[in-house]
Design a protein that fits this description.
The complex is a heterodimer. Chain A is an alpha/beta fold. Chain A folds into two domains: 2-124, no CATH class; 132-240, no CATH class. In chain A, 46% of the residues lie in helices and 15% in strands. Chain A is built from eight helices and eight strands; from the N terminus they run βαββααααββαβββαα. By secondary structure, chain B is of the alpha/beta class. Chain B has helices at residues 3-12, 86-98, 115-132, 149-156, 171-177, 183-206, 231-245, 272-287, 292-295, 309-316, 330-334, 341-350, 358-363, 368-371, 389-397, 404-407, 414-417, 428-431; strands at residues 45-46, 52-53, 55-59, 104-108, 138-142, 161-163, 218-224, 249-254, 323-324, 375-377, 380-381. In chain B, the strands form three sheets. Chain B has a six-stranded parallel beta sheet. In chain B, strands 9-10-11 form a three-stranded mixed beta sheet, with no helix packed on it. Chain B has a two-stranded antiparallel ribbon with strand order 1-2. In chain B, helix 4 (149-156) crosses helix 6 (183-206). The two termini of chain B are 44 Å apart. The chains are: A alpha/beta, B alpha/beta.
Chain lengths: 245, 436
């Protein structure tokens, strides 16, 4: 049995797929970190990221399978699931055989597994489009902390760059110490760590208070249903909200 | 009055408006502007009642010249009153939007002084947002029945969606509970908007760029359970509104008991389950190719409390089942309980490559708990019982009779869950008290 180990980057993963074809090997798993268990039957192969090879695989997926398959592969990668690499490999392998019809083979586990993973990432991305809460820190500077399950920062940034194009903003993924930063022209992803919590100015406190009031008074008392509320908006996302729940 | 107090009063008064949808418009941001609309809409929060918060939903004012019995803002009700200025609404909207609290604004109003004055205030506000603030986010505006049509039309050029509330399902209901509101005044602007939308559609075929007019269409809302109307009449009304006026949505709002009056039903809580059944049926009209008359008729004018409308329909039309999933056309697949629009489309796509097994159906998103009684897979039937109405009904209502979170606070009796055990047939009449 062969396990491919890569550096955790998207290009690294695509390089693994290139190598699997080039070397005519069929790796059992493609992992971004070694699993702790030593196994005598497993041969570990470390794959080094190669931009040129990755680019070839990227182009091949787009041309031989579909644009949608490319999106699926990327979203599945962003899930950071331990088996994401292996699932993607199996999916692409099938895709190169049957081409763009692959996404209609939902009864095939190789497609269904990717599909479910992609759905989880897509769902969280859509939810976060609504749940991101900016705090105004100073003259036209807005800051929003988030702690998503998946690495969706790069999916959120284009939305806000279009929407609140006339303000400077930072979306901070606190779990991953990364941030999307926008300066009214373009956005970029950078490393970021906060030494201390941000200070809230008077104007910001005023609008937070208004929002909290609105949040409270918009609920219909005869219909209180916290279970339903939690189902739509899971508790793990509450810590970064402004609402007082 | 402080802005915080105004917000409290005027959001409190707006909360019975159900719609919070922000979908259907693809308005994009302009250079130097703020905001855009998202085609499928975005929810930004969920309040304690589990309803989505997408828009800043407020009234311009809750001062009202009307005295409709079912409404909290009725003139005879002793509650705090307030009026926003257009600028105050604009500031709230922009500042909430910049912090990503909301997807846009849903502005409504009680009838302040007279319909024209009210409509003018609303129009001023949305014009300010679009022209002065260059705001391109979503705006849903209530049109005030009885206001000058030119005012309503002007407002339509600034907003994404407009709605006029039909209020109650029947003219008799309107006469009884809201005698100052006239059905004609409600229908007229609705017609006007439909005509205008049609005109825009024609214009668009000729010219590439035409100014927008309510691109996300119009909707309406009615209160359920304040009048003794049958579900059948309500559903037929909705069907008419969809077909004749091309409404995007009809919203149903379970009547929340807010006052006592001989003309109002005495109920403990809002009839949430009935509201839920109507929404399910509404979906069947819009996405599943059903007609109102198939779902309900004079012999059975109200929905079953224990079963969803589709299961109920299937049980009354068992001769059309079981359906072979590998052969049935899309329209028939849609009619199988437990099969939705998505799973039906997936079945049609997936079976082109291989005959589907029973196990495959689950992967495609079919809810087998219900579907198993109504389909065959490669000729095999998977329901434990024979195809018999009573037995399937028993199986479907067993164990998981009605989902708790849908029920909310509503109490169900044993008889309403298992009507076959009930001595009296009309269980709904105990919920919607019959009076005359």
């Amino acid at each position: 049995m062969i396990h491919y180990i890569y550096d955790g980057s998207f290009d690294g993963l695509l390089t693994c797929i290139y190598e699997a074809y080039y070397r005519k090997e069929a790796p059992e798993k493609i992992l971004f970190q070694e699993d702790d268990q030593e196994n005598l039957l497993v041969r570990k192969v470390y794959i080094e990221q190669d931009k040129v090879k990755a680019e070839k695989v990227y182009a091949a997926i787009g041309a031989k399978i579909s644009r949608n398959a490319l999106k699926n592969v990327f979203y599945a990668f962003l899930s950071e699931q331990e088996d994401a690499g292996s699932l993607i490999y199996r999916y692409i392998h099938l895709g190169f055989k049957i081409g763009k019809a692959i996404d209609e083979h939902l009864s095939d586990d190789r497609v269904l597994d990717i599909y479910k993973t992609v759905q989880r990432v897509t769902k969280e991305k859509h939810l976060m489009l609504g749940l991101v809460r900016f705090r105004k820190l100073g003259e036209n500077l807005y800051y929003a902390p988030i702690t998503p399950d998946y690495q969706i920062l790069g999916l959120l940034a284009p939305h806000f760059a279009k929407r609140i194009a006339d303000q400077n903003w930072i979306i901070h993924d606190m779990g991953r110490n990364m941030a999307a930063v926008y300066n009214q022209k373009e956005w970029m992803i950078t490393e970021m760590m906060l030494e201390k919590s941000v200070d809230i100015i008077e104007e910001e406190r005023f609008y937070q208070q208004l929002w909290q009031q609105y949040f409270k008074s918009i609920a219909i008392k005869n219909r209180i249903n916290p279970k339903l509320q939690k189902r739509y908006m899971p508790k793990r996302y509450w810590s970064n909200l402004v609402e007082e729940i | 009055m402080e802005i915080l107090d105004k917000l409290k009063v005027l959001s409190d008064a707006a909360k019975y408006d159900v719609s919070c949808s922000s979908s259907g418009s693809n308005r994009s941001n302009k250079k130097g502007g703020i905001g855009n609309a998202h085609m499928s809409g975005i929810c930004h929060s969920w309040s304690e009642d589990g309803r989505c918060i997408s828009l800043l939903k407020i009234l311009m004012t809750n001062y009202c010249v009307y005295d409709c019995l079912y409404c909290v803002n009725r003139s005879s009700n002793d509650i705090p009153r307030a009026v926003f200025t257009p600028q105050e609404v604009v500031d709230l909207t922009i500042n909430f939007y910049r912090r990503n609290y909301i997807e846009g604004l849903f502005l409504s109003a009680a009838v302040y002084k007279n319909p024209n004055h009210t409509m003018d205030l609303l129009t001023q506000t949305v014009r300010k947002l679009r022209e002065e603030e260059n705001f391109n986010g979503y705006i849903h505006l209530k049109a005030i029945p009885g206001a000058d049509e030119r005012l309503i039309e002007t407002a339509g050029r600034y907003v994404d969606r407009m709605s006029i509330n039909i209020e109650l399902p029947s003219t008799e209901g309107l006469q009884l509970l809201a005698p100052q509101k006239k059905r004609e005044a409600i229908i007229k602007p609705m017609k006007m908007i439909t005509a205008k939308l049609h005109e825009k559609g024609e214009e668009k075929k000729k010219y590439r760029n035409t100014p927008k007019f309510v691109p996300a269409g119009q909707t309406t809302q009615m209160i359920i359970g304040a009048t003794p109307d049958y579900d059948m009449n309500i559903l037929k009304l909705s069907e008419g509104l969809y077909n004749r006026y091309q409404l995007k949505r009809v919203y149903y709002s379970a009547y929340v008991p807010i006052g006592q009056h001989p003309s109002l039903p005495a109920i403990a809580g809002p009839p949430l389950l009935r509201e839920h059944r109507l929404y399910q049926a509404d979906w069947l009209l819009r996405f599943y190719g059903f007609q109102a008359k198939e779902l309900l008729d004079d012999r059975k004018p109200n929905f079953d409390i224990a079963l969803d409308p589709k299961c109920d329909w299937a049980l009354r039309n068992l001769e059309q089942f079981p359906v072979e999933v590998n052969r049935a056309d899309y329209e028939m697949l849609l009619r199988i309980p437990g099969v939705g629009v998505r799973s039906a489309m997936r079945i049609v796509a997936a079976r082109r490559f291989a005959q589907l097994n029973y196990e495959d159906l689950k992967k495609l998103g079919v809810v087998l708990k219900r579907a198993r009684y109504f389909l065959t897979c490669k000729g095999k039937y998977y329901g434990e019982t024979s195809i018999n109405e009573e037995r399937i009904r028993y199986q479907l209502t067993l164990g998981d009779p009605v989902k708790k979170d849908i029920l909310g606070g509503e109490q169900l009796s044993l008889f309403s869950v298992y009507p076959q055990l009930s001595p009296q047939k009309e269980t709904l009449h105990s919920i919607v008290r019959d009076w005359s």
